[in-house]
Amino acid sequence: MSDYKTMTTAEIREHYLRFFEAKGCKLYPSSSLIPDDPSLLLANAGMNQFKEYYQGTKTMREIGATSCQKCLRTNDIDNIGDARHLSFFEMLGNFSFGGYSKADAIAWAYEFITSPEHLGLPKDRLYMTVFEDDDEAIELWHEQGVAYDHISRLGEEDNFWAAGPTGPCGPCSEIYFDQGPEFEGEKPGDDGDRYLEFWNLVFTQYDRQEDGSMPDLPHRNIDTGMGLERIAAIMQHEGSNYEGDVLRSLIHVGEKLAGVTYHSSEAVDKSLRILADHARAVSFMIGDGILPSNEGRGYVLRRLLRRAVYHGRLMGIKDAFLNTYFHEVQALLGDVYTALIDNQALIEGIIAAEEERFSATLDAGEKSLTAELASLAEGAVLPGKVAFKLHDTYGFPIDLTREIAENAGHSVDMDTFDKEMAAQRNRARAGAHRDAWGQANNVWVALSDEHKATRFEGYTSDVVENAKVVALVIDGQIVESAPVDSQVEVVLDATPFYAEMGGQVGDTGIIAGPALSIEVCDTKSRGDGLIAHVGIVREGTVGVGATVTATIDHNRRELIRRNHTATHLLDAALKLVLGEHVSQAGSLVTPDRLRFDFTHFEALTADEIARIEGLINAEIFAAEPMVTNVMSLDEAKASGAVALFGEKYGDTVRVVSTGASEKPFSRELCGGTHARNTADLGFFKIVSEGSVGSNARRIEAVTSAGALEYVDEHLLELAELASELKCRPLELRSRIAQLQQELRDTKKRVSELMSGAASDVVSDALKHAVDAGGYSCALVKLDGVSAKELRGVWDGIRDGAHGKPIACVLASVTPEGQVGLLAAGTDAAVAAGFAAGDIVRVLAQKLGGRGGGRPNMAQAGGKDVAGIDDALAAARQMIGA
Q: How far is it, in rounded angstroms, from Cα 561 to Cα 559?
């Protein structure tokens, strides 16, 4: 039934966006998979970036919006691999927030899917479902020419959308395509595949209350979503998401790697689909700034990546292979989603490191599982706790556990495994908060709708006079005035204060006016461009409309400028020394130091650190001016400017470069404040380097005043150490080596004195040994002998007795100022009644410690040095001497 044209995924995407743009909708680029909404783990719908418009807390000037949104959902991860379910997908959408109407949405949808200029789908194969009470939608579809027998009513479960028990809600209308009688299914909305739903129009028009009533919203919203993969399969005359051109190309990668053929078996098909889906998801997640971890979205990434590796192994792929998939994803989609190209080195590096790590994990898990199975009786069930431990400790997939167990003739106790998994999920939920549609009560969103963005003048000035107080906020409430001693957030129309952003801490300083003074302790970015001066009213009362002078702490700002510039130089140096996979993963810029997190897979060597410092200091000593240019985002990227990983930028950006050459040492997109010249930094010194995750490192460093303070502290420490060791600072290494050798020699001499049959201590102990009836016992108090060295003394006493029955009770004040206690006897002494363990237990209690052992040897420690004499007397009494 190929009675309509064929279109590629790229053609459908382009046609859709241009169609709605021509209708007056503003075209929005896809937002990152990392949503701005803190209640969401990952972007999972086209409407995510428009949430505030839905809630009415922001107003869109255009009649609506359109986008093709990257989405990721893993709630159906166990179903991925069938014909429909995906983790990553592209969602085409058009939206209205009181702009165009329900009638417009239905008319435009029908025009797009039936017009020969666009999809051109045959009208007789299109079916619509509406909410059972939505007579309006039925008539609107019929007005477009849809026959009544192609429109059916479905209940609330299928055709009514709600944000939650309360809040925005409304009826839906879904569009179905009849794939033909060769597919199972009798009507739209059933479980068969004949009638395939591909577009959902949601008419959010009610505000459900706790009592169940549903008054109208202040304005009606339109939210539509059409899965690009699903409509691509339809337009390419295929019956499955995985048969569309993009996913089919990725499936072909798996066929070549594994030497298998798609549609050769159900198991092979499932693994090929999972690999295609997960590899695409992993590529996009890393490209958007998500790094593997054991929690949150990083855990989702790690789980998808590991599941892909596992299915590759199931098909017999032994070597690393996921980057082959990434390169295909990049070739297919990199022109639309440029992060796949911009972050190529990083994506390749993360994939390679995680794949290598998990392959080793799989080997270890398989070895552990094999050992567990070997311990089971024939046909016995593998305990669920063992299967869960393999999953939890090794990340070993339960599917693989079951397959290996079944091949060995064993089943797995899945009931217990499922209970353990459920308990783990409950623990995870307890630590997370997800509230996607809580009623908005954000004072800063309201203020941003009312006021223009604060004009920032801090790039060129430390002082702004005649600034106006436009808003005051205390404890989250808008107020008209703030009295003395109150903690307040002050919004001005213009300010020199830089708000905390991009790792750079906010400025501090003073806001002053007639009989008015506010100490600004911090500066925050609030709402859409509003800058809040967080401070305490020290004098007078501040009111909205007041005219003030805003002055930053100049010296503090200067130190921050220098450290911020140092992060740019450090980023450039890291890329030169370690490779282009390095990308900033976080930073902190304060007056006294800088912290820089970056993607890398192993600890830096001393040589690498020295080379990084050398490159940066060479740039500092070159005294390059810091040059700032304002340009379009496209111009900035064309100039080679580095964009902050995962950051969102406007159409116009600031580009900060070291010097004015075409290829400067560093060129980055940045809205922060910077040194005027690299020479202002004085010099740069790395003070620490360490891990902050399996694929990320952290460097802490200092410049200018902070670097001088660091050097002064270390020089003073070296001078004091040299003085104590009676040498010059440059002689410390040789002096320490000399002292270490002297210590080794001294220990050796002490050991020789304290042990051996000929030592003075041993001779004296044997000479004064007491008769215990059947054996002799040496009761000896020592000083400066460690607990470990007491065994050597016993060896000397035993050897010096020349085979006669001998025992000892030794007590020493150790070099640490504690008590070391040892009792030991030859077999003949034990046979005669000596019991080392009993003696030590009693004596240890007297000495404030505990210990024990066998009859022939026991040791203990204690704290009461003064009690040694009494303890030895008690030992003498216990052996009856």
A: 5
